[in-house]
Amino acid sequence: MRFVDSSIAGVILIEPDVYRDARGHFLETFHAEKYQAEGIPRVFLQDNQSRSIRHTLRGLHMQLRKPQGKLVRVVQGEIWDVAVDLRHDSPTFGRWAAERLSAENFRQLYIPPGCAHGFCVLSENAEVEYKCTELYSPADEVGIAWNDPTLAIDWPVRQPLLSTRDQSHPTLEQLLKTSAAPAQRRRVARPALAS
User: CATH number of 2-177: 1.10.10.10, 2.60.120.10, 2.40.10.340, 3.20.20.140?
Assistant: First the structure.
């Protein structure tokens, strides 16, 4: 099992060992001690699963007062998974990192609390499972526009299928100006692109 740091501190790509034979395959999708040794929490409070069709884009979402860490994996299909660093004291504030996750490559992405999360579906459909370190709180959730020009995320989908809610998210700069934004606001500079 490999744990690979990304360009954003705390965003970790996990490449599990997959044991294959004529019958199929076996892998560990979570091991508390191994994951904790690499900076991933032992305790997750909620598991979620979504199913989406090609070109669906979900995000960018996060919770403010009870931020969620997320451990994301794909059980069917393929997605492009994105984390945006919104921790006000982080040197990579406003930067993003992304990875392709699929049922074929078995990769997982850990996104720490304080980062926004989103993904788009690259295959005909995709089923995504993710573990969360905090319970979902609708009143605490905020969103950021998927196509925020300051973030400049290089999505592989140009005309995504969006929920009504995801169509109406503000830009990060607009969010930081609202009363719902974190107490320590920060001027958003155009971040360098991440891979």
Answer: 2.60.120.10
